[in-house]
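Service request form, structural biology core

Requester: graduate student, group of Dr. S.
Request type: structure prediction, single chain
Budget code: on file
Notes: please return the result as C-alpha cells.

Sequence provided:
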Amino acid sequence: MNDPEDLINRISRFVEQQREVYGEFAFKKTKADQPGVTKNASLSEEDKDTTSTTETSREATTQYKAAPSEPVPEEANTKETELSPAERIQNCKTLDELRHLCEQTEVLTTDLEGTNLVFGVGNPNADLMIVGEAPGYNEDRQGEPFVGKAGQLLDKIMGAINFDRSDIYIANILKHRPPNNRNPKAEERQKSLPYLLKQIELVDPKLILCVGKVSGTTLLNRDTTLGSLRKQFHDFHGRELMVTYHPAALLRNQQWKRPTWEDVQMLRKRYDELNGQP
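Core staff response, request fulfilled:
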C-alpha cells in the first residue's frame, strides 16, 4: 500500500504546477468528499492513486475555463493581421471603411510616386453610378474624380439629362493616377477591380454608366470595341450597365458628342423606368 503522506505530497506538487499554469482556482466539493461515501472502492490502491490525480487535473482545468477574468489568448489579437486581402475587402461594411482600407493598400498605387488616393465622390446611395478609367493630374491634386476639363464636360452632360453631381456617385477603376495619363495596365486594373466591385456593392446602384472603352471592357470582362458595347444595357451582377465615350475623348473628337448624347438620353429613360431616385 502506498504511503498516504507520499500521496498527499504528490497531489500537492501537482496542484502547485497547475496553479503556475492556470492561475488560482478552487476545488468543488463532490460526493466523494462527503462522509460515508466511498469512491472507486473496487480499484486497486495504484489505480486509486492515478484516478485521484487525473480527477484533480480535470477539476483544475474546469475551474480555469470558467474563470471570466482570464485574459484573451494572444492568438486572438493577431487574427486581423492574418486576413487575406479578399477577406479585408469583404469585411468593409461602409464606404468609409473601404476608403480607409484603400489608403493602406499599396497594390493600388501605380509606378508614379507620390500620388494621392482618388476614391470616389457623390451620393453614397445613388441609383446611378459612373465609372471612369483612372484619375488625371487635377484629380490627383484634389483627391476627387472628374474635376478637370473632362469632369466639367461630364457635369454638363449629366445636367442636360437632369442629373446634378450630388445625385450620382462617381469613381474610377484605378484609385491612383498613372504617369502621363496613360491607360491603366492590365495588372493595375486586376489589382484595383476587387476594390471597385466592393464600392459598387456598397453604393448599390440600379444603373452603371461606364465612360470609355477601358472602363467598359474591364467591368464586362470583354476584349472588344467600344462601338460594340454601346446602345444597349448589359447585365452586371444583377444591375444594368451601359457604355459610352469618355468625356476626355469628346474634347478631342467633336463627332462623338452626338452619339454620346443619344446614349445618355437612353440612360435617362431607363433610369426613370426603374424608378431611380432622386
